[in-house]
Design goal:
Keywords: Metal-binding. The protein is of the alpha/beta class. The chain has two domains: 1-63, 2,3-Dihydroxybiphenyl 1,2-Dioxygenase, domain 1; 76-129, Roll (2,3-Dihydroxybiphenyl 1,2-Dioxygenase, domain 1), CATH 3.10.180.10. Helix content is 16%, strand content 37%. The chain contains two helices and eight strands. The strands form two sheets. A four-stranded mixed β-sheet has the order 1-4-3-2, with helices on one face. It has a four-stranded mixed β-sheet with strand order 5-8-7-6, covered by helices on one side. The protein is globular and about 50 Å long. The two termini are 30 Å apart.
């Protein structure tokens, strides 16, 4: 068995770099650790942290292929963020024009959660802890 220590990062390829960069930094509040333009690939790589922890690598590539990203499609189902007050966070998203699903309660944990999407339709979840 491998001796994994944890998850290091999540890599996301976006269709519009400036829109996704603004979403992850200005809406979700990620901190930019490093931004690199790789000329040979015509690609940006943005390293993002949350509360000082490296979490996301945001990439841009010319004409990236489409991929289904609905929660029930094969592959990554969604990326979930822990929050303390889900109603407050949903109100903030909605006030910024970001639609959220109705808040639901997890059948097994009795915790509240909801879904919304990033600018490319990647399903994101808020989960109350």
């Amino acid at each position: 068995m491998l001796e994994l220590k944890g998850i290091h990062h999540i890599a996301i390829i976006c269709s519009n770099y400036s829109v996704s960069k603004a979403f992850y930094t200005e809406v979700l509040g990620f901190e930019i650790l490093q931004e690199v333009y790789r000329e040979e690939r015509d690609s940006y790589k943005l390293d993002l942290a949350l509360n000082g922890q490296y979490i996301i690598e945001l990439f841009s590539f010319p004409d990236p292929a489409e991929r289904p990203s609905y929660p029930e499609a094969r592959g990554l189902r969604h990326l979930a963020f822990a929050v303390e007050n889900i109603e407050k966070q949903v109100a903030l998203l909605n006030n910024m024009g970001i639609k959220t699903e109705p808040i639901r309660v997890d059948d097994t944990s009795d915790k509240k959660f909801t879904f919304f999407t990033d600018p490319d339709g990647l399903p994101l979840e808020l989960y109350e802890v």
